[in-house]
Amino acid sequence: MAKKDAKNHQKGKRSLTETVNSILKRVYGETIAAKKLCTQKIELLFRILTLNLERLSILIEKIFLLFFIFLRKRLFGAKSTKQIIYFYPL
User: What is the pTM of this model?
Assistant: First the structure.
């Protein structure tokens, strides 16, 4: 029973890592400029860090937009979301 649970827990892990690898290659390219193994690792870490920061900034922007929509509805009683989105300066 424990082996089945462990297999089911790790079942989707490979597809997640492949997805992240695909995103990294698509965004930053397939090649690495560094020649030494140590600097290659550092370069990959910075690419991963940069990707995570980009994704985090997008998430924060979406949360801010949702909060702005909520606040606008509460304060000004806007009936539709279109009224709010046109008001939001991009």
Answer: 0.63
Cα 90 to Cα 6, 53, 86, distances in angstroms: 46, 20, 9
**Tens of pLDDT, residues 1-25:** 566 666 666 677 888 889 889 999 9
Going by C-alpha positions, the residue among 45, 67, 78, 21 that lies closest to residue 87 is 78
Same domain, 43 and 24: no
* Residues 6 or more apart whose Cβ sits within 8 Å of residue 50: 28
43 token code pair: 């370069």
Tell me, yes or no, whether 48 and 17 share the same domain. Answer: no
Looking at the structure of the chain, the number of domains it has is: 2
Alpha-carbon distance of 82 to 74, in angstroms, equals 15
Rg (CA), the chain: 21
60 sits in which H/E element: helix 37-76
Instruction: Tell me how far apart the alpha carbons of residues 47 and 64 are, in angstroms, rounded to a whole number.
Output: 26
